[in-house]
Amino acid sequence: MGRSSGPQITLPWPAIAEGNPSVLQVPSTSLAAQRTAFRRALRSWYRRQARPLPWREAPTLYKTVVSEFMLQQTQVKAVLPHFARWQAELPDFAALAAAPAEQVLKLWEGLGYYSRARNLHRLAKALVAGPPVAPTPEAWRELPGIGPYTAAAITSIAFGAPVACVDGNVVRILARLTGDPALHRDGGAAAKAYTALADALVPATAPGDHNQAMMELGATVCLRRQPRCGACPVRRFCAGARTSDPAAYPRFLPKRRERRAVVRVWCERRGALLLHRGAADARRLADLHELPTAAQAGLDAAAAEAGALLAKRTRAITRFQISESIHALARPGRDGEPGLVWVPLARLDTIALSGPHRRWVREILSRRAESASAGGARPGRPSAGR
Description:
Largest sheet: 6 strands, mixed
CATH class of the largest domain: Mainly Alpha
Number of strands: 8
């Protein structure tokens, strides 16, 4: 089923072996003391229940790297179609390194957090142009876009590095297994708090399988809400399962949400739609197209809001709760910002639009087509927010 952790090779780090406290620094918990039985139960379940994901079948370093970048803050079901298209067009590091940025962003469209695509592109160029990279987490962390989690995932799966991957799924599992009452500031702080325990549980043999089993457990059984404790292969080790509310773990300090309102404009001219393309050196939206804000279109918010309301949406990005309204206007202002471009409606599918804006544009055009076929009734009616 392609569940191997990849080729096992001799590596230049100290072995993380059981019974070596100078290396392990094992926390004095019942879970660490029972790690052999815990590993066995987890591994047996994973071999029976692991989903046959495309990056697990006939695994390669390239598949592992691409999948790990795509899976950052994105669910598997959203990644699957993107991964298939990506592999069809860019099947290896050389193809990715040679691809134009526009193609990379277009293939990534819909996954969000586009800095991941740009970093993956930079990584491929570095791997193709540079000397071989040592198969250690430390060496991989020197490369573009590689943080502690991604370095651990790539090197454990592809090279057998005995290091734990600690993401939100693993934090959730370990918090429940230990019944940890601690309040964590955020996910990053929690990951640091559980890294020592996670490393103590990783076996020296097939650590990639162990890490993938932990990810699989968090994604399919130890869910954030309504965990499926009855189906859990390691329930007998879990302090949280013995409480009345295992979903209460892990515990975080309350987040403060900041609210923002954004007014955007919809302008058409001779079958073309006005969009704003991010500058090539922009931190977040480099080379991506979006519907322009009122300011980008050279208008103040009040002038833009005078146009018919086509849609209103709410979405959360990090700590911000953003309300965005889109208003139809005949023309932009005279002092629009650099980056404004007119894109023919027939070419919208060929450019890289940020995911939410792709949905909004399609919805507005679809409603207009439906309205036209129904006799033009209420073309400016806004749709409900999501």
